[in-house]
Amino acid sequence: MIVKKIIRLFIYALFPALLLAGCKKWMEIDPPIDTITTTEMFSSNKEAEWAMAAVYSKLINGMELTGPSDVAEKNFGSGLVTVLGGVSSDEIIMAPSALSGEYLYLSSNTLTVKNSSMTARLWNTAYKIIFDTNGVIEGIEGSKSNQLTDSVRKQLTGEALAVRAFAYFYLVNFFGDLPLALTTDFNQTMGLSRTPAGRVYEQIVADLRQAKTLLPADFSAGNGERVRVNRWFAEALLARVSLYTGDYQQAVASATAVIGETGLFNLEGDVANVFLKNSREAILQLKQTNADQVLRNATPEGVAFNPYQWGFQSKFRLGSGWPELFEETDKRRTSWIGYNAGEAYPNKYKTGNHNSVYMAEQPEYYMAMRLAEMYLVRAEANVRAAGGNTVAAVKDLNAIRKRAGAEELPETLTAQQVTDAVARERQLELFAEWGHRWLDLKRTGKASSVLSAIPRKQPWKGDYQLLYPIPEDEIRNNNRLVQNPQYNIQ
Known about the structure:
mainly alpha; two-stranded antiparallel ribbon; disordered N terminus
């Protein structure tokens, strides 16, 4: 049935400069407009690809027409998850000047409904991405044009499903139960109540399973660059989701499938190369614009985490004692941590304010999913599964540690020792990436004991802070939404 609903795609004004993978056909499209009907947008392969490219653009370059200069602190897909998760956990601390605002409440875990505008940005920008992916899915399904070929229909539907699943994964982990919107039809979505987290996860899994059947198994859609979703991103996200939901057999199977795709993926031998564009470790990267006067050719996180100028304290720093967690021989300590004005800061992205160049080629793309996580997922799933395979888990941990130059672990470790080793390795390998530390502490039940002992988070207000409050405007506009526990009594 032809979809009659008008889809607002809010296409970014700088879009021609942001096109993924140098796809020259997209460069020839007329300037975008704000609102178009589904029949206009999905009447040909070119227009349909343009719509999906706009989704990727908003993921990395933000939603605002004013420019993505501070997009890492405003947008779900370009650094906000890392910032919020890092400050809420024990991973990132703020410069004293930054603690006068909402970062103070995040850092001390004293959020209220009234001081949660930053967490509301995560909700709002993730749901905008979900709205747009729903629009792509509906538009392709509703189009009867014979100029929109079956192969493009399948691929773009698969990409939209996988990106929708990606957005819902972070929403459900940061907010808990939430409205499950699977259409652009406002009449159906305006009064949605909160769907239980378990049901949201079921939808995520369903989307990923369907996406796997539709997506290509290579990077041809991005002209060889790793900047568009393919089958292995869907498989990798399914591995992560399966670990989170306790389906350890599926987590092992999915992670193994990705790791086994050695024609596409390998651990980079040098940790300094992991975050370069088109790294062999990249399962998905997001290609940022180089046409913003502030970002220039840096990633949003590169600008956010690197010091603005040498000798001045960085806004975001690593928590106390963080560098000392690494062994002396661990190359991640020297390659992924920077030092400035006596402070350590995340330095996985080397291009920042101090060395970026306007309109120059980007040396790094923003990493959304990488192979090392799959080794860690498989290791944890193996040790947690019934009859845990500790030997296999240690081998996966050693693959990561050997690459880093750290001492390899013995295969004689007990199940508990391996479980602890997995947690530690995740902490070291995935620090300052997509909120992994925050989510790991919560899902393993360690958040309260670890975080409540940190001086800046005392006195501990309660475990209810492990979920963020639903944005006040959402509650006000939809009386079927119920606030997360204890936030409604503040």
